[in-house]
Write a structure and sequence with these properties.
Strand content: under 5%
Largest sheet: 2 strands, antiparallel
Shape: globular
Helix content: 25-40%
Radius of gyration: 21 Å
Oligomer: single chain
């Protein structure tokens, strides 16, 4: 599928290598055929040009207020504005790092707590910025980067096993924990150190693909091959 990539941070219009005339010309010549890959490349180029045009309009129409100080909130606000303005943008992906807290993790004022605060603030900004579009939007927060249940000798937590998936949106039946919850007692830990995995993340993703994006079984099998549901999670 055609996609457009934007750098995060204060300068989303920073030119990429593909924007250099010589590089762009070379790739345009390389993918000038009628095969599916060439067509996808050209559609992706068109998608990027459309996004850059939207950003130009955003900068022109921006008010005099200062941007939000938090980087993730700023990116979330920009994505919300783009999705509200351009209905062709159906999917958006954002990445946030800084979760590798092996040492000096801190408690309620530490590094992990601060990062979670930034994540929460950005999600709130995204929901608010979407306005009425939020009612038809589903936001998924997930990571393979879990933390151990018990703190190590360096005041941090090492790489864990199980993790959490957050789902929010206008039609999400929120306010509860879905799936099995074995608890945090040592007898329930995976390999005596980690949170055990009780829910296959594909059970969550497949529910959203079916009931939010309305994909059929054949389409679902293309996205999640060799997948067999383990439990029914009614999120919507």
């Amino acid at each position: 599928m055609p996609i457009a990539n934007l750098p995060s941070g204060a300068n989303p219009k920073k030119r990429l290598l593909i924007d250099r005339p010589q590089v762009a010309t070379a790739f345009d010549q390389l993918y000038s055929g009628n095969d599916s890959l060439s067509q996808t490349y050209r559609q992706g180029r068109m998608a990027r040009e459309a996004i850059m045009k939207d950003l130009d309009q955003e900068m022109t129409m921006a008010n005099n207020g200062a941007p939000l100080p938090d980087g993730f909130s700023r990116d979330a606000s920009r994505l919300a504005q783009l999705m509200v303005r351009d209905s062709r943008i159906e999917l958006g992906f954002m990445a946030l790092g800084g979760w590798d807290t092996h040492a000096n993790q801190g408690s309620t004022q530490g590094t992990l707590a601060q990062n979670l605060g930034k994540l929460g603030k950005g999600l709130a900004t995204l929901a608010q910025g979407l306005g009425n579009v939020y009612q038809n939007t589903t936001i998924v927060v997930m990571s393979e980067f879990g933390r151990t249940v018990r703190q190590n000798n360096n005041g941090g937590t090492d790489h864990g096993h199980g993790n959490v998936v957050w789902v929010l949106g206008g039609n999400v039946k929120g306010g509860k924990v879905y799936g099995e919850w074995p608890g945090l007692s040592p007898s329930q830990w995976y390999e005596k150190r980690d949170l055990a995995i009780a829910t296959d993340f594909r059970d969550v993703i497949s529910t959203l693909l079916q009931h939010h994006l309305h994909l059929n079984t054949s389409q679902l099998n293309q996205i999640l091959p060799n997948y067999t549901p383990t439990q029914k999670i009614v999120l919507l």
